[in-house]
Design brief:
The protein is α/β, with parallel strands linked by helices and 539 residues long. It contains 19 helices and 16 strands. Strand 10 and strand 11 form a beta hairpin.
């Protein structure tokens, strides 16, 4: 239902008392709104008008003085009057061309009464219409507000609200949003949309009005009304204000629901990685928050992104990473925990090549231009133990955390480390809190350590390389970049310090290898208290 909330000059020309009239200027201004009717017979009227008045005059002010008429007309234009009606005959016989040109230039209607009329009858008639319209406006606004509030309780998006606004105003409604998904009611053709229709009029045009939609001091968009047949009136502006407020309430509700769901989802993920869910609970929650899917297993990856990465860049990066792993057959769930970014990677393919596919995805991620710029600041990536049971995702998170700590102490040059590839370090980490373990390191390696400290030697490095090369002297010399004689001399020293059977005795050799890993694990990094504190935070 469209509301007739204002009178235009054109509407008034259709009233009974305007049958014998002639519009001689300002035809383009016939859509001007009329808020009141005044009879004016004085030369200076600037302080008497508020705007949008239709002026009735016999011309007694200027009579045949064209300069006075021109000055009188300019005052009306400056005050924003709606139009000038002049009774021809008694005091004025004609209107000069200069006055008509001035009126046309300003789209200001000049209407001539071609016979004598009673101004009192005109004012009574039009004022009665305006007063009735005012009361009708109040009723229609109350009705509109009621319907708006009803829709606010039931609708899921702003489309129905904009349609209701169009029903009451009959105007073109445009909702310009920050995400560039503009809404048009009624729909406009593609060419008009591309031409940016809300820029067709200047900001002070009486045919366009707009209001910003602000939610919690954040700009969500702008609501426009456009008119092609009449000027925007007060009722339109009141409707615009009420709709803008309702839209802000709708967006606030959506933000609240989104934030609540985000909080619930974060709580679910937190409890999941803490191992609080059984298999069935994990499946039910996964279907609720992520949708139904067939999952064959999964793992957890942990990394620390640079602090200076902005929120928008972080969001973009996570979307990009999600896309890469989806191509490799993984569904990605992202969360933040203890200052680290946690990626839960769920395997959606039944083949046994999960690690190959995951490694391929990791390589693509690490080779992106975005990460190449920040690679020196990325604090490693660690992948936890793979599990086929969703209830054991917590175990995968724990092993990823352990892998991240071991990776730092190991000081590997690789950015990505898999927990299952750490082998001996995992065994050593089980003993690192036992006092006897350090004593065993001393028992097996202390002579070598003391020799290196005393003579600035490299026996410990030689021992580690020699064992890793399975006793191949040629390969050991090659890796150490030393000649054979230098290597033979070092091996002789090792035999004196560790015993001649340190290679031939399988159990002794295994124990020495274990102690080498333990020594590197417990004493290899210079991370100090900062690393200890970070380890406590991750655990």
């Amino acid at each position: 239902m469209q509301h007739q909330s204002s009178l235009s000059v054109k509407d008034i020309l259709n009233r009974d008392h305007f049958e014998k009239t002639k519009v001689i200027a300002g035809l383009e201004g016939l859509t001007r709104q009329v808020k009141w009717v005044h009879v004016v017979e004085v030369p200076n009227i600037k302080k008497l008008l508020n705007g949008n008045e239709l002026i009735l005059s016999t011309g007694v002010v200027w009579k045949e003085n064209h300069k006075l008429l021109e000055d009188f007309l300019q005052q009306l234009i400056d005050c924003g009057a709606a139009g000038l009606c002049i009774e021809i005959g008694t005091y004025t016989s004609n209107i000069p061309d200069s006055v008509i040109q001035l009126a046309n230039h300003n789209r200001f209607p000049i209407i001539l009464f071609m016979q004598e009329v009673q101004f009192v009858n005109i004012t009574q008639d039009i004022h009665a219409v305006l007063i009735n319209q005012h009361y009708q406006t109040i009723q229609d606004l109350e009705q509109y507000s009621l319907k708006l509030n009803q829709k606010l309780l039931t609708i899921e998006n702003s489309n129905e609200m904009l349609k209701l606004m169009h029903d009451y105003t009959g105007l073109q409604i445009i909702m310009k949003t920050n995400d560039e998904k503009d809404l048009f009611v009624p729909e406009m053709n593609s060419d008009t949309k591309r031409s940016d229709p809300y820029k067709l009029f200047p900001n002070d045009s009486p045919f366009v009005a707009k209001r910003p939609v602000i939610v919690m001091e954040k700009h969500f968009g702008e609501l426009f009304i456009l008119s092609t047949e009449r000027e925007i009136n007060e009722f339109d502006l009141l409707i615009l204000d009420r709709t803008t407020t309702a839209l802000a309430q709708l967006f606030l509700r959506e933000l609240y629901v989104e934030e609540k769901r985000r909080t619930e989802k974060h709580e679910w993920i937190t409890r999941w990685v803490d191992g609080e869910y059984g298999e069935q609970e994990a499946l039910v929650n996964l279907a609720y928050y992520e949708g139904k899917m067939r999952v064959y297993g999964g793992t957890v990856a942990i990394c620390k992104l640079p602090l200076e990465i902005s929120s928008s860049d972080r969001t973009y990066l996570n979307l990009f990473i999600r896309s890469i792993f989806e191509q490799q057959g993984f569904h990605l769930i992202t969360t933040e925990r203890h200052g680290y970014t946690v990626y839960i990677l769920l395997n959606l393919r039944g083949d046994g090549a999960w690690k190959h596919r995951l490694s391929t995805g990791m390589e693509k991620v690490l080779n992106t231009e975005f990460l190449k710029k920040h690679a020196s600041q990325i604090d490693r990536i660690a992948v936890g133990q793979y599990t086929e049971a969703l209830s054991k995702i917590g175990l995968s998170y724990q092993t990823a955390s352990e892998a991240l700590k071991l990776q730092k102490k190991k000081q590997s040059e690789r950015l990505c480390t898999y927990y299952e590839d750490l082998h001996m370090y995992r065994v050593i980490s089980l003993f690192k809190t036992q006092n006897e373990f350090q004593e065993m390191i001393t028992e097996y390696l202390q002579p070598v350590i003391d020799y290196d400290e005393k003579y600035n030697g490299k026996l410990l490095q030689t021992l580690r390389t020699y064992l890793s090369c399975n006793g191949s002297k040629k390969e050991t010399a090659k890796q150490l970049y030393v000649v054979r004689q230098t290597l033979y001399y070092r091996i002789e020293k090792l035999e004196k310090l560790l015993g001649e059977d340190f290679m031939s005795n399988a159990e002794k050799r295994l124990a020495i290898e274990l102690m080498l890993f333990a020594h590197e694990h417990l004493n290899g990094g210079n991370h100090g208290q900062a690393l200890k504190a970070e380890d406590e935070m991750m655990s």
